[in-house]
Design a protein that fits this description.
The chain contains one helix and nine strands. It is of the alpha+beta class. The radius of gyration is 23 Å and the shape is globular.
């Protein structure tokens, strides 16, 4: 009776074994090295008079401004979702969950969203949504941040 499944026997030559071993070593060692110095940060986003912004969700994005040490590797912006109570954030993610932001200077954008992650109009002036126009900037070493947003014009 012939077997239903036949297993093909794999043979590895010496060079392929070395390549396999090198790949395993590089993947284990490479995973622990971070390409950038990361800084855990936290803070608050409030109106300039200290009042909370009445949005279902506020997203804060930190855009690195310093030139990267390696021209072939650029850090990602870090993002945080602000808690509704107190306007606080303490989890900022750039490359991995809660890894913080790359060390150095950042422009900060802030947008308000509704429950469905769509833009919530009329809560935060449009200038805060663009890196080109936001007046907010921070240095990662100055955490915790107090980001004050001007109220939109009536």
């Amino acid at each position: 009776m012939a077997p239903i499944l036949q297993r093909k026997r794999e043979t590895f030559t010496m060079p392929s074994r070395h390549a396999l071993l090198a790949g395993v070593v590089l993947s284990v060692v490479g995973c622990s090295d971070r390409p950038f110095d990361m800084v855990k940060v936290e803070g608050a986003v409030l109106y300039s008079d200290g009042a909370e912004i009445p949005a279902a969700r506020i997203v804060v994005t930190f855009h690195p401004q310093d030139a990267p040490a390696n021209e072939r590797r650029h850090p990602r912006p870090g993002q945080a979702v602000v808690r509704q109570s107190g306007g606080l954030f303490d989890v900022v993610t750039s490359h991995e969950y809660a890894d913080g932001i790359v060390a150095g200077r950042h422009k900060v954008t802030v947008v308000a969203q509704d429950e469905d992650w769509r833009p919530a109009r009329g809560l935060i002036p449009a200038k805060y949504a663009s890196v080109a126009t936001t007046p907010l900037s921070v240095d990662a070493s100055d955490s915790p941040f107090k980001l004050l947003i001007s109220r939109p014009a009536p």
